[in-house]
Task: inverse folding
């Protein structure tokens, strides 16, 4: 992950929490007091965001925090093992505590959940995709956590990928017309993905030359048929399954032979992984 | 909610999603095309964030979007009823779609969950509190959603409330010493809250003059005893229960007689409420 | 003081003064020239803001300025003694000169004035409070200077304290009604302060359960009576005197027995303390 | 004054005061409540900043505040006459109150003080100048207030005027050398001002071709002699008196025949003019 | 073009030019003076940026400027015909003049130049591409101008397209290895482009499965051979010619049969189209 | 050049290019990989912007890039000689490559062109001036490049110099009236420049006391006459020639005896100097 990119975001999160100052710590001990602390996970999971957490403390201490030990993103964590040990100004540690834990908990929660999906289909030729259903302002970080968990990132915004969805199709008057317009007005440097809800739309999409086809909210039978039609037509087309996918049904979907399964819940409905910071 | 306060946040979320432009819509239809759309919930829940969603579309349309119908925050929503109907530039609608839904889904998810907690204890003299375990950058909005669901907001940051926690106590060498320092160095204009983990700490806290005592991770029996000791000493002290509280055990905790129960999961582990936007 | 918090403010002040560059220094000597300089007070007073001044030069020199000697905030200063001696790029020193002196002069002016008020009442159980009548953008710094001078900070903004004032009372239709609404709609985690102008309002405030009562613009006699009524009712209520207080009358007000005296002039009408920077 | 220029400054001041929201007003009345209010001066003075005050309320109300009456900058104000009457959301009025008054009080204080200096020398061919000793971030506004009071603005920053001061002279090794370097390295599109402390430096400055000479901290006799030497040499040179000038001695200084008198105290040690806002 | 996206850029350009205020206009006429003005091209060319110019004046007038007539981007302009007629505050017009003309001149210069390239190859199946050699901060606008002139936009940044260049190849140890790593680590949702300098690299690129091949700085003969090898292997591969292309040689390059020709000079070495603003 | 001033501009340019991350490099090699690279000019010219380029890499590497060799601005560059050699993270080098080259190419292009103009008139008492026809956001840098090439900077914005142009004159009703108003309303601390198009206007300008006269778009004969009239009247007046000046006619214009020649093309129509970055 590129810390330059997320530093303003981290600084903003610190500003949000610290506001005009940590009035409790200021009242309790001198700002010159030094301290040592560790971060520990209170449950088992997959670590993501440890560099973000370190950057929180670098910013809260104007660069003077020292880290004597640190696990790496992608490591397994659990109650017995310190994720990070730091040494520096006690007030800097406490000023960064909640922000660092909030980042770490959410990102590790996402990585842990993604890993569960990935593990359920790991013997198949299919990959787990994320969506744009991320927390406002945190997309780059949350997609990084998905990748840490073994998932693949779909587009990051409206500007770096073409995805023709139901509302576009309604405006254009049909899947075929929509894909045709995209082909005409966009340079061939980008792949064109289109969402289809039934087999008629699917045929239009193939005929119009879509590069990627998203099968939206199809049942297992219909999806299997869709996959087989695409494969019989055209080897180059990639297939994504989407809509209502969860830990219970992901295996079923994967077995239809799609290339990708996108799961909004990876980022929109994730339980944080519980971490705590302890002064030592 | 004060929209002035959150407008920069909403603008930032739009910037994050739109980036250098919505390349799909630009390729499919002229930017002068007008459209009409509705937002509908795909499951039942409590609405929160509708003014945020409207502001997203105001910003994506430079103020030209018209809203012909809108439910209000706190209303119940479900699959049959439009939450919001809007009319304006089709490209402005699609540019705002995902961002508006992301805000609406998360905030309504929080409000819906908070309402569940509140309902479970509504016959008792106890209130549900949030924490600072919020999504970075979204604290003001997420705490607003908690309030919409009937919860009460705890402090918004390190600067607007005094809360002496375990790490402070370790640094000061004890609960009593910590509260005493706070009393001495802070003006009496603010209440002093302190976290205690056992009855010995509790006695120190009472003796040192804490205004609010947080009972952290106590079992039901110990918590009941703690409440009774506080009530026998000093009527003015407020009591907060904290740590590991969920929908299963919140009723038990409430019955111990505490004034407040804080639930981190209200904001750190919430499932989004599912909304969709449909061009009409 | 938390420099992270005020760094953007200091950078903005440098931008304001330096604009597109220091055209005089650029014309007179090479940017590689090194220099040494001291800051000296030209009159006696109480120092505040020396860390701000140092940060100005750190920013103007991209971190390369060295400080070989420095007094501390709260120290007495006068014409004979260097407040700060620095060594670094001559152009960095001159680029920071005016901004550093402007901060230092205003903050030390405030600290010096606050100390005068504090000294006048130091044998009494009363504390000097500041107000929100601060220079736009400088509130955190000016309140820090008040604290350096021995004063106590009242709320920092509309968001970290409840103060029901004359306009609120007019809107609510009375002191009692206003306090009642606050009690109902706000959590008991915060103290409620209310401004009263006469004894009738005072009785309402006590009856409605105010935590802090501000006696606004009362004469000495009426104030004394107000204090005695409050003390006879309810020991927990804190009393603040406010309105038209200056160095001449502060002692009189203090002798009425109030807990706090707030003085707007600490920050809205203060004479700068005169400092100068000399290349050595 | 160009409001575009100061709008970000005003927005920042509102952010500083309102922070996460006006918790008192939110608790006391619905945000839909309308109100009417007037601003009145509590003492006599010269008005400056009324457009800034109006912009505060425009921003606090997202543009919906209506102003039914308003005095203009440069008008005399006093206790009997409304400066500004506004109508709009009551919460918007109260959210803007303190910020608007803080701007208005400081700017009118500066204009009122400047007018006193100007009046003391108005029969003479001399003009009152401000300095860069302004409140950080408020320079454009404070210099506007000086102009409103009849003063003349000296340079706004290090980038829009050349002023060779004592520290530059020390670095260059003399007044003559400094002016010579400036002449050589700067285009003749800008005038060169140099500070001199005695008659020897004055002769050097004249010989080297300074366009403006600042007589720094000279007694009346020496200043008179300096003026006469300059006038005898070279008609084009402008003369500025500077250093320790106050309401008591400004007339004396003016009578020496200088063209300009600069007064730091116009902006660094000014008493606010007292205004109040009343809901009607 | 999405004005929301470029508004901050336009505001920044106005801030850069206006700084602390337009001192000339302020001295010459009252800010209430109304005026009317037209913008006219002083030479023939293709218009681009007229909406940007209008936004400049909207911002300089806080939204009060009226436009009574306006050509559209893509129109031909010349000395006789007004591009834009506006009516509003005279000081707002003059405050925006230079910034509006600077945008208009550069963007129209780019569109005019692009059109020349496009016209030279318009009977062939080839398209003119831009590069990332744009003016810092103006990329979105300059690429928009390229599109207005009939060109096609290549990637907007390092984040929305994969282009393996000479330095990447050196790091990876060869074209084949580089493309292989990209294939493995990137999802197939994006096309992979690789730069090759000779036929050996070309074979590696084809073998490794590149989607787009850039022929960098090849002579006409070698380029023709490269095209023929690619076409014989694999129909899906797109071909881009790059390096040292100008108005003299673009036709020759096009005739080799490539799909795209990228021209850095479209944005890095363009002559402005001359426009003027006249008060009417 | 003051890097503090341009650092935000450089950071913004990096943000523009890197966006959400360099997806190509991330896919090809680990972020821990170290590398070494040099920047070389591909044609001969005058170097400008090397400190900007270094700052780009400092920012892209969070300060960890090392520069082992560097030419200085104003040095001649050409194909054989490294301009800059750096060592650090390979991904940091590639992330900064395009942005650094874009700055370096444009600034060196400007410096190289300016030097050509300066050389053509170097035996005469005349200086080459730039204008405000610069790339939006890059004015400070582009004017620095002009200075590096031996030119002189005219004003940087509307706020640091007075220039009465044709539109002002039309509004005021004549050159004389315009200059008179400027004289009255502006302090004599600034010089007044006025643009004249013919000899009648010239006489008015002289009579009204202009300090600098710009001869706009005059033929050589008329310009010569204008110069002679000004010189016969008034030695102090500076003369600037402006309008349609290029490398072909600059010598002719210079020989009329003007003090300054302003050339818009120095910044609005300049060819970039070609640089490349090579991993070593």
Result:
């Amino acid at each position: 992950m590129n810390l330059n990119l997320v530093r303003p975001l981290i600084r903003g999160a610190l500003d949000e929490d610290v506001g005009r100052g940590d009035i409790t710590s200021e009242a309790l001990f001198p700002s010159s007091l030094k301290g040592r602390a560790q971060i520990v996970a209170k449950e088992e999971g997959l670590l993501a965001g440890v560099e973000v957490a370190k950057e929180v403390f670098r910013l809260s201490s104007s660069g003077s925090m020292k880290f004597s030990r640190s696990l790496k993103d992608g490591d397994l964590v659990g109650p017995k093992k310190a994720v990070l040990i730091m040494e520096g100004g006690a007030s800097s540690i406490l000023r960064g505590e909640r922000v660092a834990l909030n980042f770490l908990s959410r990102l590790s929660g996402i990585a842990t959940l993604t890993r569960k999906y990935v593990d359920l289909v790991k013997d198949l030729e299919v990959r787990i995709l994320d969506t744009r259903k991320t927390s406002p302002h945190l997309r780059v970080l949350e997609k990084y956590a998905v990748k840490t968990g073994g998932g693949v990132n779909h587009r990051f915004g409206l500007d770096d990928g073409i995805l023709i969805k139901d509302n576009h199709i309604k405006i254009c008057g049909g899947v075929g017309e929509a894909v045709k317009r995209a082909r005409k007005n966009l340079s061939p440097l980008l792949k064109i993905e289109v969402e289809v809800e039934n087999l008629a739309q699917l045929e239009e999409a193939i005929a119009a030359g879509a590069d990627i086809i998203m099968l939206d909210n199809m049942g297992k039978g219909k999806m299997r048929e869709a996959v087989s039609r695409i494969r019989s037509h055209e080897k180059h087309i990639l297939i994504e399954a989407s809509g209502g996918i969860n830990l219970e049904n992901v295996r079923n979907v994967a077995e239809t032979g799609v290339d990708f399964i996108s799961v909004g819940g990876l980022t929109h409905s994730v339980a944080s992984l519980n971490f705590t910071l302890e002064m030592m």
